[in-house]
Amino acid sequence: MTSVQDDVARGTGASEATVAEAKDAPRARRRRALVLAAVFVCAACGLVYELALVALGSYLLGNTITQASVVLALMVFAMGLGSLAAKPLTRHAAASFAVVELVLALVGGTSVLILYAAFAWWSLYQPLLVVLALAIGLLIGAEIPLLMTLLQRIRRQEASSAVADLFAADYVGALIGGLAFPFVLLPWLGLLEGTLVVGAVNAVAGAAVTLWLFRSEVRRRVRALLGVALAAVLAALLVLAVTASAFEATARQRIFRDPVVVAERSDYQEIVVTRSLRGGDTRLFLNGDLQFSSLDEYRYHEALVHPAMAGAHARVLVLGGGDGLAARELLRYDDVESVTLVDLDPAVVSLARRDPTFRDLNDDAFADPRLTVVNADAFGWLRANDEQFDVVVADMPDADDVPTAKLYSVETYGLVRRALAPGGRVVVQAGSPYFAREAYWTTAASLRTAGLSPTAYHVDVPSFGDWGFFLATAGSAPELRMAPDAPRTRFVDDGVLAAAQVFPKDRGVLDLTPSTLLDPVILERQGTWRGY
């Protein structure tokens, strides 16, 4: 027996209210624990919604920094507004909390689907992103005042103690949600299905607080309506989850001009291959960025590879190039002894190894015993290896995000310079000097800062437009020419290379600040460059 109950048994006159409170204490503790568990689950779900919006933006638009900044800033701002807006709702805290959570589950759970549809069909991605981020933030912000009221109704306690309990559960839930998103939801369910499932969990956890723990405070009719609303939300999320794959395939096809024949998401990116109805044009897209068209890729890869081979080229390093097309050009030289290809994503290499169209395009380069593939980040691999090469071919993706921007930094080119054998050459694909002029010449500044002397040149690749490269050495700027033993080419020759060094007056050299790890220059997919 408790001390209060002992006093009552001895007739000491403890009040009936105190005795009742003492008897109810275990039940109150259980109820508080369950409410805090609901706080934990709802916080985890809320953070998943935030991360899902950031991830989708980075997939579709690139530039994770901008996407994260916009989403988080809008949500945190809206959370403050939501907390203020929830004040009048505290008079009916239990019912209001259930309504808030059901709406949040529906809006947050379907947010990725809505935004993907807006991107694919309506070109309204950015406006809807702002609306959804504000809406989710408002609803998340409304949770705290309502939950605080419910906790105090179970058992009165000091405000500081109640706030500590509430925020402890909230922050731990956010931790779990943040870890579950990349390590559980994305690999097991995917972005679209994962957010729908989280929405269902959110709806059940939120409604359970009202329909179970606080049912005595809500009128029967209201409970019935909330039950129907919960069933409707769960049914809607279930239907959308079942049809998610079909929706994604339809939306993806809407984005691309030609039929999609391969679509998969690796640990690093979305891989899409399209093929024209007549079969003459196969295109590879990584995160929506065109990597090559089979109609004219030879122009790009010949211009990239052959100028670098006008010198010693027994040992060659390729950074990127997981499609095997640059390796194809390199392996056409009989005196190439080894090619080391370092590409981050094994899924791209696997596709290039097994797909008949890819194997035909790359001349089955991956079956050549001279080619060694290493699946690793190029920057990390260069740091960890002291090997030297006669030629380094940097065939890396455009710098449209911080992780890829580092591949075009002074630090990366310093590592490339260390990897060059005496007299070695490095060639870098550097984007378009016509459409992204500042980006192109920033690469030249970065190469020079790293101790390399670049020679600029550009060619026309119809799928890309005007496209530029830099050939560089650790000595003086190299002469742009074909190797004496160069194999027969379809496009590049000495005449083309001579013309490739001529730039229009309005696209001439710019004296710009180099890109570094701490101050990267990022290429926006809209074609503008911005430094951060």
From TrEMBL:
Location of the protein in the cell: Cell membrane
Swiss-Prot/TrEMBL catalytic activity: S-adenosyl 3-(methylsulfanyl)propylamine + putrescine = S-methyl-5'-thioadenosine + spermidine + H(+)
Gene: speE
Pathway assigned in UniProt: Amine and polyamine biosynthesis; spermidine biosynthesis; spermidine from putrescine: step 1/1
Origin species: Knoellia flava TL1
Record's protein name: Polyamine aminopropyltransferase
Function: Catalyzes the irreversible transfer of a propylamine group from the amino donor S-adenosylmethioninamine (decarboxy-AdoMet) to putrescine (1,4-diaminobutane) to yield spermidine.
Catalytic residues identified in the record: 395
Self-association and partners: Homodimer or homotetramer.
Keywords, sorted A to Z: Cell membrane, Membrane, Polyamine biosynthesis, Spermidine biosynthesis, Transferase, Transmembrane, Transmembrane helix
EC number: 2.5.1.16
Membrane topology: Multi-pass membrane protein
Ranges of residues in domain PABS: 244-474
Family, as annotated: Belongs to the spermidine/spermine synthase family.
